[in-house]
Design brief:
Layout lengths: L1 E4 L4 H13 L5 E3 L17 H19 L10 E10 L23 H12 L6 E13 L2 E13 L18 E3 L4 E2 L5 H7 L1 H16 L1
Parallel strand pairs: 1-2, 1-3
Antiparallel strand pairs: 3-4, 4-5, 5-6, 6-7
Helix pairs in contact: 1-5, 4-5
Length: about 210
């Protein structure tokens, strides 16, 4: 079975593929560009699950219309929307995490977004934050499943405390107190076990196996 993942992010593809395989789903995971498809939907939802559902529907419709060689009718689609929510910033950047302070023509690089978030948070005593992931498994426009999970932690107090070369995005600045490390310092296996995407992916993997 082939599963289509509604993203252009190769890091996310590798991460989700590992998560699904860990939980017993040994299917081929493809993203639109693997089939030569342009996919860049406008994320107009007001929540993580709305944006995930929007992306799943867009890709499902695109595949059904384009019918690329790698596609078979009935192939399920997975989409996710994720970001970091900071309590002292009233939940920002939230669904705008990837577009934090960017614009329609330019997105900031990860390091720039991390620096901006630290600057905006300043010396706030409350450093509580969490990664959120909403993940949709779609078999058809009217038949889908949604899982939403979190990964709790604290934002580091300064750029000097941002550590780790693993992961991507905001991983170097979210510190996990129970482990004494940032997300970027975790191994791939550790991250996929406790992360927001790992926990949502586990639920989705169980649903896929129930469908087989």
């Amino acid at each position: 079975m082939t599963i289509w993942f509604a993203t252009g992010n190769a890091h996310k593809k590798a991460e989700l593929s590992a998560i699904l395989q860990t939980h017993g789903v040994d299917s081929r995971l493809l993203i639109p560009k693997d089939a030569g498809l342009d996919f860049d939907p406008e994320e107009t939802g007001t929540s993580f699950h709305e944006n995930a559902l929007l992306k799943a529907r867009e890709l499902h419709a695109l595949l059904d219309k384009a019918r690329p060689a790698l596609f078979s009718p009935g192939d399920p689609v997975i989409a996710d929307d994720s970001g970091i929510c900071v309590d002292a910033l009233d939940g920002r950047p939230g669904i705008y995490s990837a577009r934090y302070a960017g614009n329609s023509t330019k997105k900031l690089e990860s390091a720039e977004r991390n620096s901006l978030l630290l600057e905006e948070l300043g010396n706030a005593a409350n450093r509580k934050a969490r990664f959120v992931c909403a993940m949709v498994l779609m078999y058809g426009p009217d038949r889908f499943f949604i899982a939403q999970e979190t990964m709790e932690g604290d934002i580091v107090k300064s750029a000097e405390q941002a550590k780790g070369a693993g992961g991507f995005g905001y991983d170097p600045i979210l510190f996990i107190p129970e482990l004494g490390r940032t997300v970027a310092e975790l191994s791939e296996e550790e991250k996929n076990t406790i992360s927001h995407r790992g926990k949502a992916g586990k639920i989705i993997a169980e649903r896929i196996k129930n469908e087989q």
